[in-house]
Design a protein that fits this description.
370 residues, Aspartate Aminotransferase, domain 1, 13% strand, Aspartate Aminotransferase, domain 2, alpha/beta, 7-stranded mixed β-sheet, 12 strands, 3-stranded antiparallel β-sheet, single chain
């Protein structure tokens, strides 16, 4: 049977080098047990501590913890006033949650093309996509590489637009020394288990404006700050203290884990140079944190993936279908770089728990496959 584009390629389980290997160690387990024994398990002291500690990663911005990265995006858009009748410029080359969040607040996504080197929004394409109904820009720091925030911030300021960063894959990434999540009106992070750090599940919104932070806290907690004093219509999107406690442990691990990702990526850069693959690049001034190490395979991609699977190396295609071709988002969009990326990208293992032997196996398998 022919292999479908983007279909998972089976790898022998006993030998597989996985694309992701979430870490749940004794420290995470102990933190969760501590919270369960405390009896304070939702929106309590662990959440407050996690918010304070995460602020150090985003230049001291106000941090509001929620139950997922998608909730973070939805609440950020709602808090800045995006709603029915508005349009938000987004990339199509991303996970569907980016556009789902726009629809969840009643607005419409307008898809713009990507830069072929970074896979992030192309500022020229964004400029062309801005129209009279545009209310916000929603760039994604894809695969751990920061978007072109200098140009995008300028566009947002020039047109009076909100700028919401989807930093769900980019914890600790920087551009010109400034961390992602600290450029826009709001930044949004995910703590799903396969991300660069996790909290079992959860998300975070980062903002500079204290009034906006208060509005976010109301929105996540049924519109109330004090019990039964509901000020606005809100929802239950709170983070549990178990998740926050795990997130605090993971946040402590993040600097070392990031350096291991970057070291693994540097090794792959050296060892795979000259293979004919188009390797990841980092824009000038960008600190890439390699949520994924994504190469381009022009033609024969599924044969390449099958070769690696046979050698016990797992791969993934992020993303096999662009958002603008998904049934919930009909329309006619000319996005040539997005379509090219969809047809060529393959993500190789780069996560921090890879051993030297596993990295060597990845290198040997890729060299053989190409």
């Amino acid at each position: 049977m022919a292999q479908l584009v983007g279909e998972s390629v089976p790898v022998p389980r006993s030998e597989a080098v996985p694309v992701a290997r979430p870490v749940i160690g004794e420290a995470e387990i102990a933190a969760a047990v501590r919270v369960l024994r405390s009896g304070s398990v939702v929106q309590g002291p662990e959440v407050a501590a996690f918010e304070r500690e995460f602020a150090e990663l985003v230049d001291g911005r106000h941090c509001v913890a929620v139950n997922s990265g998608t909730s973070a995006l939805q609440l950020a858009l709602a808090a800045v006033g995006i709603g029915p009748g508005d349009e938000v410029v987004v990339p199509s080359f991303s996970f569907a949650a980016t556009a789902n969040a726009v629809r969840l607040v009643g607005a419409e996504p307008v898809f713009a093309d990507i830069d072929p080197d970074t896979f992030c929004l192309d500022p020229a394409a964004v400029r062309a996509a801005i129209g009279p109904r545009t209310a916000a820009l929603l760039p994604v720091h894809l695969y751990g590489h920061p978007a072109a925030m200098g140009e995008l911030t300028g566009l947002a300021d020039r047109h009076g637009l909100a700028l919401v960063e989807d930093a769900c894959q980019a914890h600790g990434a920087t551009l010109a020394g400034r961390p992602v999540g600290a450029f826009g009106t709001a930044g949004c992070f995910s703590f799903y288990p396969t991300k660069n750090m996790h909290a079992l599940e959860g998300g975070m919104v980062t903002v500079a404006d204290p009034a906006l932070a208060r509005r976010l806290r109301l929105l996540r907690n049924q519109g109330m700050e004090q019990p039964y004093r509901n000020e606005i219509v809100g929802a239950n999107l709170r983070m549990t203290d178990v998740s926050a406690a795990v997130g605090r442990v993971q946040l402590g691990r993040l600097p070392a884990a990031t350096e291991r990702r970057r070291a693994h990526a540097a090794l792959l850069d050296r060892e795979l140079a000259g293979t004919g693959l188009r390797l990841p690049v980092a824009a000038a001034g960008a600190r890439h944190v390699y949520h994924q190490y994504t190469v381009r395979v022009p033609g024969q991609r599924e044969e390449f993936r099958r070769e690696l699977a046979g050698a016990g190396v797992a791969t993934e295609v992020y993303y096999p279908v662009p958002i603008h071709r998904l049934p919930p988002f009909p329309g006619r969009w000319a996005l040539p770089e997005t379509e090219r990326a969809v047809a060529e990208v393959v993500s190789l293992p780069v996560h921090p728990t890879l051993s030297a032997e596993e990295l060597d196996r990845v290198v040997r398998a890729v060299r053989h496959a190409v």
